[in-house]
Amino acid sequence: MYNFSYINPTKLIFGAGQIEKLKTELPADAKILIVYGGGSIKHNGVYQQIINALQGFEYLEFSGIEPNPHYETCMEAVEIIRREQINFLLAAGGGSVIDAAKFMAAAALFKGDDPWQIVEQGLSIESALPLCTVLTLPATGSEMNGNSVITRDADRNKLGWGSLKVYPVFSILDPETTYTLPPKQIGNGVVDTFVHTTEQYLTFATDAKLQDGFAETILRTLIAEGPKALQTPRDYNVRANLMFASTMALNGLIGTGVPQDWATHGIGHELTARYGLDHGQTLAIVLPGALTVLREQKGEKIAQCGRNVFGINEQNIDTQIDKTISAIENFFEEMGISTHLSQYGITEEAADAVSARLAERGWLLGEKQNITPQMVKTILLLRK
Amino acid sequence: MYNFSYINPTKLIFGAGQIEKLKTELPADAKILIVYGGGSIKHNGVYQQIINALQGFEYLEFSGIEPNPHYETCMEAVEIIRREQINFLLAAGGGSVIDAAKFMAAAALFKGDDPWQIVEQGLSIESALPLCTVLTLPATGSEMNGNSVITRDADRNKLGWGSLKVYPVFSILDPETTYTLPPKQIGNGVVDTFVHTTEQYLTFATDAKLQDGFAETILRTLIAEGPKALQTPRDYNVRANLMFASTMALNGLIGTGVPQDWATHGIGHELTARYGLDHGQTLAIVLPGALTVLREQKGEKIAQCGRNVFGINEQNIDTQIDKTISAIENFFEEMGISTHLSQYGITEEAADAVSARLAERGWLLGEKQNITPQMVKTILLLRK
User: Fold this and answer.
1) What would the mean pLDDT of B148-172 be, rounded to a whole number?
2) What is the predicted ipTM?
3) Which residues of A touch B (CB under 8 A)?
4) Total domain count for chain B?
5) CB count, 10 Å around CB of B50?
6) pTM here?
7) Looking at the predicted structure, is the pLDDT value of residue A363 above 90?
8) Residue B122 carries which DSSP code?
9) CA-CA distance, A199 to A260, in Å (whole number)?
């Protein structure tokens, strides 16, 4: 196990009917900006629950956060935050809305020239407005971490950044809010959670028994509950297990003291920036290819995943690895998320374009930072 | 899954050589009281590492915290804390030392008549001094929670209390500090961790897949690594896995949203208070008896534990339960901790005495609060 430090100050408030806790968790002098997306919270009752809980508080609203939230949109909100002296942000939605609110929280107090520097240069921020979340789409784990991914629309630049200062003060997770999610969003969310987990788990073996066992628990939970969420949308326990799984997959815990490999996310972000694919779709495409190309380096852990997650027990290590990678791909398809570029109408051209973009960035990907642009090309050609 | 709220603000700093981080984690104006036990930290190098890290800080020392720390001893320290205007406590040791420091932190700022009220009446405290820990004995999880157990020596009253205010600000966990622990302390620590876990897991089934899987991971880790710690004391990964397991077993996570049953601890505390047994010893005695008496209520989860933790797969449910309880008992014995009262020279009299004491307290034990004093007697008679 590697040395590590771990802290996660976010308070989780979990369960049916918990949105009303806003009223006791928010400070009395909060002047709130409610940040949300395209308005689905107005159809599923979440908006009304929030408004009911906020009686007696001062608040404004900012809607229209897009998937893969734009820097440009966030900056409109920042202007309102500054002008109206907002002192607490409430993000109601999924990862895009929460990521956007994190950027607003940092940008509003940023003293430099252009808050985009926080994202592009990874500038360490000194302070941020406090924020809380009402999660409606389990997927990114953003409700219990300090990570955020923002896209600058002007040049289609999609980048991640993070800070301890933008961990939500508290996050309310009511599984019932996910009952009305469309199947595609459930599939994307399960794939995203699955891939977050593998990126902290399918590396090389370090005898970290807790982290491995926790990661395997999350993966088994997704495999057991994901298809049920598609089949029986109003099963509370299914939704509760999926929601808690997505939070635990990326709140830092399973990644403590172990190697990590965020190559699939890195490559996936470029596919989204260039072709507009959903985040989960890009991950479903890339992961099986990345595991195939890196099968030697990751072989021991892929085999372990096969045994402990999928119950695959082949004597021959190559067969074990092949079957495990196939099982992962099949699971993504079972969740309704296609795993090949051609299924989205994207040609081989993507392999060259994405590897060129990554070469330009000069990033070293993978747990051994040994994934070259040429390997990225190979990965994507496998997924045509 | 039940509704829950969860927060854990403690920062973990984990790994070899991390004690030196005290120097960067402590505030510059800290006036520190180092709290420790019988001096083992002076023999294993931990004391010297702490002193080296504290160069430039103002500090005093308070040693002599006993196992099952006494209220009376803590109050001596509180007098020093108040007189010397100590503003940060550093607990160096295991659960007893950390629990004592938590009580000191709360008692030093207590405004009522007698700080014992915090323990006996469970008074909610308004504030506490900040504290940090250097853990040397993985067992109680006290390094990452707000719990504390204090014994008033005058009347042999051993009671637990807790507050969010006494979570350590940070805890340093260096697995190398555990290399020199005597086998009995390793055994006690592993048993304590095992029983903490079962008390949040062996209740009734609630389809909480994450919590169950995390608990099973901790139990499997203890079973795999515990005996190795006895056989090869200087295996870093073994010690790292055990240390992280004991923290994760009682930092609140696996107990979120599920029923809990702290009967074994409750009964065990009375055995310690009356007969002076080690905490781990009392748990090793009580748990197999408690599971036997509550085998109907807990049957489904005991059987699941057998399958997922011990690899026991019997068709007949009764055989499955019997074999699982035996496997738990055998594991405790393998860790060198005897599981019957007679092995400690204690007679059947204990069954009457402890059940009478619990009747007097009027506590309702068990996840269904249905364990009567008569059942406690039956449990202990099974363990004579």
Assistant:
1) 95
2) 0.96
3) 1-18, 21, 170, 207-210, 213-214, 216-218, 220-221, 224-225, 237, 240-241, 244-245, 248, 256-257
4) 2
5) 22
6) 0.97
7) no
8) -
9) 6
